[in-house]
Write a structure and sequence with these properties.
The complex is a heterodimer of chains A (993) and B (254).
Chain A: H1 2-8, E1 25-29, H2 33-36, H3 42-51, E2 54-58, H4 64-68, E3 71-73, H5 80-98, H6 104-110, E4 143-147, E5 151-152, E6 158-159, E7 166-167, E8 175-180, E9 182-183, E10 198-201, E11 204-209, E12 215-218, H7 237-244, H8 250-257, H9 261-275, E13 282-286, H10 288-291, H11 296-310, E14 319-322, H12 329-334, E15 341-342, E16 346-347, H13 369-373, E17 394-395, E18 398-399, H14 400-412, H15 418-421, H16 434-442, E19 448-452, H17 456-459, H18 463-470, E20 475-480, H19 497-502, E21 506-511, E22 520-523, E23 528-532, H20 545-559, E24 573-574, E25 579-580, E26 590-595, E27 597-598, E28 613-616, E29 619-624, H21 629-632, H22 647-656, E30 658-659, E31 663-664, E32 671-672, E33 690-691, E34 701-702, E35 705-706, E36 729-730, E37 850-851, E38 867-872, H23 888-893, E39 898-902, H24 903-909, E40 916-921, E41 924-933, E42 939-941, E43 944-946, E44 948-952, E45 973-974, E46 986-992
Helix pairs in contact in A: 1-11, 5-8, 5-9, 5-11, 8-9, 16-18
Chain B: E1 4-9, H1 18-26, E2 53-61, E3 64-72, H2 81-85, E4 91-93, E5 99-101, H3 121-125, E6 135-137, E7 140-142, H4 190-194, E8 200-204, H5 205-221, E9 228-230, E10 238-242
Parallel strand pairs in B: 1-10
Antiparallel strand pairs in B: 1-8, 2-3, 4-5, 6-7, 9-10
Chain lengths: 993, 254
């Protein structure tokens, strides 16, 4: 999510499952797609049958996926950046030789390749700092002067209603539009600051408008590309990219990854050669094999660079596909089951002074949340040429980011002013990722835990640490279908009855409902939301989790009822710390007397930002929220205007968004009546008129019904690329392939194709005719929904609408900790003592990764733990096994854990197939059966033979079939940016038990 | 040969083993006791509780590592030798080629000299050693009837309601479900309906043989020179497309 967001603007799979059928080549890496996504992977076979697609699998172990692939290459776990970085070097080299294997036009039009980089930026190849970049202040473009769309007010000047908007001689973060033409006065008027208020100036009338910020102008290399120009400009992003990966030769790939250099180049040829052309597409499929590393985010970033260079994003059959491990993981992240987001990927506010106030946008005079959250557009060519739409920025006279945040606040607290309810949102004061939460439990900071359908006592790393940490909980609620290891943590093996008696935790086990026993929506990897009805009621006392959390919320809310303070009174003596509320009633905040005196005769205008003051006679009132009004004022379960439907439907309606009052949308001028469902997120307002629980889902539950229920199994797209627009609903606004503006020529094509013509006329996604996006269609809306605002063509807007620069980023900014390009670092636990890439001169492991205090790791090249180990899933079990290890048929297929190893390693260790063996890491050891297989082979790393083994991690001590947990061995360390644990590579030893 | 046919395309099979589970569900068979034996194959062979078992085979062929999958089950021989071997006439060959064991007549304890003597005549006479009866359940050896794939004959020509499992409380006792069309998915074998990659197809045996031959030609031209249709020497209603010679799969070269 983090890497895709950094490169493209949205942290989601760029296409959808069915679209896999359009691919010419599929590179499966960091994923065992056939085993772990058996249903979805049928679209891979469709690509094979319909396109004769080539399937490539790169994985440490030969799996059921490898068995179905046309090409397979082994790779040592944790070296994916070297492999992919090697591909980048190979592609650039090939392009320089014969002009193939890079989609040059796409790179020039749709990426930041031509942007000029800060003069002081140096890549990891600079000998002063091998393996790291120059200071982070240099991770930026080089800019010219801003484009300022305003003129400064002048005295005695003729203005017309078509004149440019003016700003005062002393800018006040407001701008003024001429509404009555005339000549301005001799002296500057007193500019009003309230939106839409007017002032007369000479014979001109000015109207105050919300300002649009100035546009930043990064410098850009000059086209066409030739010697020293365009992509060959020595200071452009593309040349920095080339420099960064210059050391990633095929021989270096062989040394670090253990992949044969010849085979590696064959794969480069097959993937890059097979997909760079305008009418070819390649998809990359990845899963936890890329993410669960200390360099997880950068693994995926490297992939995004390759896909951008090949022009494989936004087109049919192209994409970077994050294969989600569960049918609703996408839905979970969309709804902010991540510590750093509010629903809809709106950044969670943190405990910094600037986030105390919501604010309005980038031109706020003080630091606010929205000032930081609304990016400034970057347009090298402004005002000429197509522009960055800068999606989070201004549309109409409001900012989209503000629309979404305010509507979210109004969904939760419809009766409270949004500036007040902003104070109800917790401000994150520390890292709250999974590992940090477990550490906080261990340290006694977190005293209670809800585990909803999750089994951390199998799934988390360093189980010995995690299981002991749980002993510090005062209470634990587990909601699951079966009694899992988590519910049973106090009965774990190895504890004496005395030790069990000493665990103080009160454990509650709530029986939940399975997917078939409840209604609601699920969002799959391709962002497709499908509504499900209840097939049968849950058995016995088991309940739908929505019912449980609804009851829980209502009970908690009942405990927080508050008595608001007395209403303000005129000409009354107030003492310090007296509280009042406005005479109009509770607005969610209170007003505390901070200067005691007598109040004025007229009620003041009450400020709504927490901390703001108002003077009233002699009294000074400060706006405060002392009563934890956030829970008491919460609309639970949904706002009072939502009265019809089942509980799940009501929640879905709130998530979609509805009008709180009769209003006209600021953008598009569409009228809504109170209680009406909102059609799409263009129509949300930032003034508090609309409520929307998740802006991305706006459109899922329209006035005409629940679109997630749509079940029309017909592909209406004329090119038959598998859009199925009337089956379910996909965010955003039912778009199935995001960034689809990049699927057309954004400038004149190489054979004279008109701007807007599809790159691939056979498998086109959208088609701009020069006037509209209905090209190729006999009626509108049977093509895919064009990205962004559907009336703007390629000459108006750049394709990557979510990025401030409007294009995909080959070079990132300051968004990721390691730097703007990925660089190979060894895993936290590595058998090597020096980074081969820099011959030991640069960092061995990721310098940005966070070592948890108290966690233990094997040393680099640790002689006690010389074997590399990885973990994975099986088709037959699912995650922590809470369901599948309680299902007899699944236990029959895979009854117990095992460790897979090569015949070569087994021979060295004297292990036979089926033997009981002990695998130990510095954190613990487990006994399990050996699976000696031809499917693991030793690696030769820089001339030295290195052995790698692997094991599935589904087992634990509870359930119908139990067994040792692989996560007893795994390290308590996370990715530098997301802190996802590095469970995919660590060091162990193995011996016959 | 006329009648029904089934093609199991091992080039498409991903060894997810959904067929193994769904077969068990349709036939109301329990999960038997298993342990890890060093291979993904589990149980290691067909049994009284598993009419179909996916076998995992690792082999190196001409320097290429192969991870092969073979769905082992009754081949439904056109001239089933098991039929003649049964002293009780419990094995029936339908006109459409489906070979099935008539449960009421099958009495394995009485068809050998001593009750537990193995193999039973049907298995002994099966060129592929398919029919089985015993398996372990909760530590005890159980099983009373010989079991093998019956081509889901009792799903054929039945209506969608027939998909309700036999032991489900939703099933109306005593109601005979009669087919109105033969095309609904419910009329197909359970394994075919479930198979995610579509590796199992059924139809007229002539069409199945043509499809098998076409797939083999494609594979031979696309990296699998030894691809073949199996079995060859014995006429069967279930056919496999194999990626390598039957010997590589450990199969009898019939």
């Amino acid at each position: 999510v983090a890497a895709l967001g950094e490169s493209y603007g949205r942290g989601a799979m760029t296409n959808h499952w069915i679209d896999l059928k359009n691919a010419n080549v599929l590179l499966i890496m960091g994923s065992n797609a056939v085993e772990n996504h058996p249903i979805a992977s049928r679209w891979i076979w469709t690509a094979k049958e319909q396109n004769n697609a080539t399937i490539i699998h790169v994985d440490p172990r030969f799996t059921r996926t490898s068995a179905k692939a046309d090409m397979y290459a082994p790779i040592r776990s944790g070296t994916d950046i070297t492999f992919l970085g090697g591909m980048i070097r190979w592609m650039i080299n090939k392009w320089e030789t014969d002009g193939t294997c890079i989609n040059q036009k796409y790179v020039e039009d749709c990426t930041n390749a031509l942007f000029i980089v800060d003069d002081n930026f140096e890549t990891c190849r600079d000998t002063d700092h091998l393996g790291t970049f120059s200071a982070s202040s240099t991770w930026d473009y080089k800019y010219g002067a801003n484009y300022n769309p305003y003129t400064t007010w002048l005295a005695s000047t003729a203005y017309t209603t078509t004149s440019l908007v003016v700003e005062p001689t002393v800018p006040n973060a407001r701008h003024y539009l001429c509404t009555i033409a005339g000549t301005s006065g001799l002296s500057e008027p007193v500019w009003p600051t309230t939106e839409n208020s007017t002032v007369v100036d000479g014979t001109v009338t000015w109207k105050c408008v919300m300002p649009a910020p100035q546009i930043k102008k990064p410098l850009k290399a000059t086209l066409p590309t030739g010697p020293g120009t365009g992509l060959n400009d020595p200071q452009c992003v593309f040349q920095k990219l080339k420099d960064q990966y210059s050391a990633y030769t095929p021989q270096m790939v062989e040394k670090i990854c253990g992949t044969d250099a010849g085979l590696f180049q064959d794969i480069c040829e097959a993937y890059c050669g097979g997909t760079y052309a305008d009418n070819k597409a390649g998809t990359m499929l990845y899963a936890m094999g890329w993410t669960q590393h200390t360099v997880g985010t950068q693994n995926i970033r490297t992939a995004t660079i390759i896909q951008s260079l090949l022009g494989n994003i936004g087109v049919a059959g192209g994409g970077i596909d994050a294969l989600r491990g569960w049918h609703n993981v996408q839905g979970a992240t969309d709804h902010a089951l991540l510590q750093h987001y509010l629903p809809g990927y709106l950044g969670a506010p943190t405990n910094v002074a600037g986030h105390a106030k919501l604010g309005t946008g980038p031109l706020d005079l003080t630091t606010t949340y929205l000032k930081g959250a609304v990016p400034i557009a970057m347009d090298p060519d402004a005002p000429a040429g197509p522009q960055s739409s800068n999606w989070w920025g201004r549309f109409g006279t409001q900012y989209n980011r503000a629309r979404y945040v305010v509507s979210l606040l109004k969904a939760w607290w419809p009766s409270v002013n949004h500036n007040v309810s902003w104070s109800y949102i917790p401000k994150k004061h520390t890292d709250c990722t999974y590992l940090s939460l477990i550490k906080a439990i261990n340290d006694g900071i977190i005293k209670g835990l809800f585990a909803w359908g999750t089994n951390p006592m199998v799934m988390g790393p360093d189980q010995n640490y995690e299981r002991n940490a749980m002993d510090n909980l005062e209470w634990l609620v587990v909601c699951d279908l079966f009694e899992t290891e988590t519910a049973n943590f106090w009965q774990r093996p190895g504890l004496t009855p005395t030790q069990i008696a000493a665990i103080p935790t009160e454990v509650y086990l709530l029986p939940g409902a399975s997917f078939a026993e409840k209604e609601g929506s699920a969002s799959n990897s391709g962002r497709l939301m499908q509504w499900r009805d209840t097939a049968c009621p849950p058995p016995g006392n088991a309940k739908d989790e929505l019912v449980i959390i609804n009851d829980l919320g209502a009970a908690i809310k009942g405990l927080y009822s508050i008595t608001p303070p007395a209403a303000w009174a005129a000409s009354t003596a107030y003492a310090l710390n007296d509280l009042v509320q406005p005479t109009a009633g509770n607005n969610g905040a209170q007003y505390k007397c901070t200067v005691a005196s007598t109040s004025g005769a007229i009620e003041p205008a009450w400020p709504t930002n927490i901390g703001d003051i108002v003077v009233d006679g002699g009294v000074t009132w400060t706006c405060v929220n002392l009563l934890n009004a956030g829970i008491a004022n919460l609309a639970w379960p949904v706002g009072p205007l939502l009265t019809t439907g089942t509980l799940a439907e009501k929640v879905a309606k709130e998530v979609n968004g509805y009008a709180l009052v009769n209003y006209t949308s600021n953008f598009g001028s569409v009228n809504y009546t109170a209680g009406g469902q909102i059609l799409n997120f263009f129509h949300l307002n930032s003034g508090g008129e609309s409520a929307c629980g998740n802006w991305l889902f706006c459109g899922t539950y329209q006035a005409t019904g629940n679109k997630m229920r749509s079940r029309d199994p017909v592909d209406y797209h004329p090119a038959q690329i598998g859009i199925y627009d009337k089956w379910g609903y996909s965010w955003p606004v039912n778009r199935r392939i995001i960034y689809n503006r990049a699927s057309v020529y954004n400038t004149l094509g190489p054979l004279g194709q008109a701007v807007g013509t599809p790159l691939n006329p056979t498998k086109w996604v959208v088609w701009w005719t020069g006037a509209n996006w209905n090209g190729g269609c006999t009626s509108p809306q049977v093509n895919d929904v064009v990205d962004g605002f559907g009336t703007a063509g390629p000459t108006t807007w750049l394709p990557y609408i979510m990025n401030a620069e409007g294009v995909a980023k080959l070079m990132g900014g300051k968004g990721l900790l390691e730097g703007p390009f990925p660089e190979h670092y060894e895993p936290r636990e590595t058998p090597l003592t020096a980074n081969i890439l820099t011959n030991g001169a640069g960092p061995l492991t990721n310098p940005s990764a966070y070592d948890y205090p108290g966690a233990i790791y094997a040393d680099a090249g640790d002689p006690d733990y010389p074997i590399i180990c990885t973990t994975y899933r099986l088709t037959e079990h699912w995650h922590g096994g809470g369901c599948t290890r309680n299902t007899p048929t699944q236990c029959e297929l895979m009854p117990e854990p095992f460790v897979e190893m090569s015949e070569e390693l087994a021979a060295i260790k004297g292990i036979s197939n089926g033997d009981l063996v002990t695998v130990s890491s510095i954190r613990g050891s487990i006994d399990l059966k050996a699976c000696v297989t031809k499917r693991w082979k030793p690696f030769v790393i820089n001339g030295v033979t290195r052995h790698e083994i692997g094991m599935p991690w589904h087992w634990g001590f509870a359930g119908l079939c139990s067994g040792a947990s692989a996560n007893v061995l795994t390290p308590f360390i996370g990715d530098a940016n997301t802190r996802i644990p590095e469970t995919k590579v660590f060091l162990v030893n193995i011996a016959k038990a | 040969m006329t009648g029904k046919g089934m093609l199991i395309d091992t080039s498409k099979c991903t060894a997810c083993r959904a067929c193994q589970v769904t077969c068990k569900q349709w036939h109301s068979l329990p999960a038997e006791d298993t342990y890890f034996t060093g291979s993904y194959t589990n149980p290691p062979d067909n049994s009284g509780a598993n009419l179909t078992v996916v076998k995992f085979i690792e082999a190196e062929v001409a320097g290429n590592l192969r991870f092969l999958f073979f769905n082992n089950r009754c081949r439904h021989c056109n001239t089933p030798s098991c039929k003649g071997a049964c002293p009780f006439g419990a094995i029936k060959r339908q006109a459409d080629g489906i070979v099935r064991i008539v449960k009421a007549k099958c009495t394995p304890r009485l068809c050998t000299a001593s009750p537990l003597q193995e193999p039973k005549p049907c298995q002994a006479n099966c060129p592929f050693h398919i029919p089985k009866w015993k398996y372990y359940l909760n530590g005890k050896k159980v099983g009373a009837k010989m079991k093998k794939c019956d081509f889901c004959f009792n799903r054929m020509n039945t209506s969608p309601q027939a998909l309700v499992l036999k032991d489900s409380p939703q099933r109306t006792p005593g109601v005979k479900y009669v087919s109105t069309d033969g095309l609904t998915k419910s009329a197909l074998p359970a394994c075919q309906v479930t198979c995610p990659p579509g590796a199992i197809i059924t139809g007229d045996i002539g069409d199945i043989e043509t499809a098998a031959a076409n797939k083999v030609s494609y594979l031979q031209a696309n990296g699998y020179p030894y691809a073949n249709v199996y079995p060859v020497d014995i006429q069967t209603h279930v056919k496999w497309v194999l990626l390598e010679n039957p010997e590589v799969y450990g199969l009898e070269p019939y």
